Amino acid sequence: MAITKIAAPAVPEPAGEIFSNCLVVGDQIFLSGMTASGPDGKAIGGNSMEAQARAVMGKIRHLIEAAGATMADVLKITVYVTDISRRAEIGVVRNEFFPGNKPCSTMVEVKGLVTPDLLIEIDAVAIRGASRN
Q1: Domain-embedded: residue 39
Q2: Model pTM?
Q3: Residue 106 located in a structural domain
Q4: Distance, CA of 113 to chain centre
């Protein structure tokens, strides 16, 4: 089965192409961890967990749609946070991007992410046409 790399203009590929943001195999879609890193390298949303989570989910949506799916096709997310006590802020954003049945999810607190200003990273797995709702 062929592996297809998916790109979305709103989500630049990593410098040096050290990994792929999104790969598709059949109807399965795999996303690398997305952060709120902006074009200038700084965190979109500053120190707001909610704003960073919204930026991350926006990147996920762009890639999922570029792969021919919708957010309703996302079946699993893994959320990495630097402060798990702020999980309620993420919940607000989850409800915006995943109304109805929610995807399976794991949340893990980590010591740090790629730069100190990033508070959250999320990876995702989707299947085109799955539609949780």
Answers
A1: yes
A2: 0.95
A3: yes
A4: 14
